[in-house]
Amino acid sequence: MMGTMSSIGLQAVGVSDRDEQLYRTLLRNPRATLSQLSAATGTSRVLARRGLDRLETMGLVSRQGQPARFVPAAPDMAIEALILRRQEELERCRMVAATLLAESREAGQSAGWLVEVIVGREATFQRYRQLLTTARSEVLMFDKPPYIGPAENPLEIDVLKRGVTWKAVYAPEALELPERVAHLRSWQDAGEQARVCAHLPLKLVMVDRALALLPLTADNAGETEEHTAILVHPCSLLTTLGMLFDMLWERSLPLSWTGSDDELDETDRTMLQLLTAGFKDQAIARQLDVSLRTVRRRLSNLMTVHGLRSRFQLGQLAVQRGWV
Description:
By secondary structure, the chain is an alpha+beta fold. It has helices spanning 2-8, 17-28, 34-41, 45-57, 75-114, 121-134, 155-161, 172-175, 180-190, 236-251, 266-276, 281-288, 292-305, 311-320; strands at 32-33, 61-64, 69-72, 115-119, 138-143, 165-170, 193-196, 204-207, 211-215, 228-232, 253-255.
């Protein structure tokens, strides 16, 4: 339990596991002596003294009297001070990175920074993770298989929790993957805006309209073929990719898995969403985990109940009534 807490808490602000144990022990036993802390934590007096010295330097501990008794600082104020200090250090690192980039460009290497070539699936996925980590306001994505990482994309939920806008345009084949409907529901519940485009020309992820990652390897490339992608920095190509996304976003069909009409159950609503997204009956059956006969029967029943003669009319009615 201690390791779990430190991995998400004090270790992030520079406090080691052993020093955190000392601090926690002192919170339970304020004004303890060195000998008492050494015994309580099962460490030697030398190690305990060194740990207390480090905690005192960080402002988490103070000492009083002679012989010295150690007093813990209030966790809220002391740890907040450490967080602010770490944020200042990171901001200085960001300024150094900007300075290094400027120096590289002044040295005549600016052209090489406009487009970076990334070779290998692992290297590409690592850059993808880095991009999402740095996202501050917006992520734009063209989504189509095959994928170099997990299709369920666990990173997206973390990004959405930070308040970042996420817009995704899906190719129809991306929606036919097993359990994809469940994934889409969870992403949209977290805030994703989704649309589907019948002919998506490429895969793309763009962050804050400042960087874009897109693969160059053909979709039908074999596993043994070397995967290649490019990372595009601010330039005319990046601007063009942003314009392409905006154009296809406007032309794509909104994709939502929530409905507003109580006369439909969840199965019918999902079925109609897949139908309006361009799914064939067999693909709908796979997503719903039912037989092809069941899908056709339910669609026929819906048309009969609403006096419709075609699936096109059923799709129009679903949109008009807010079922999809």
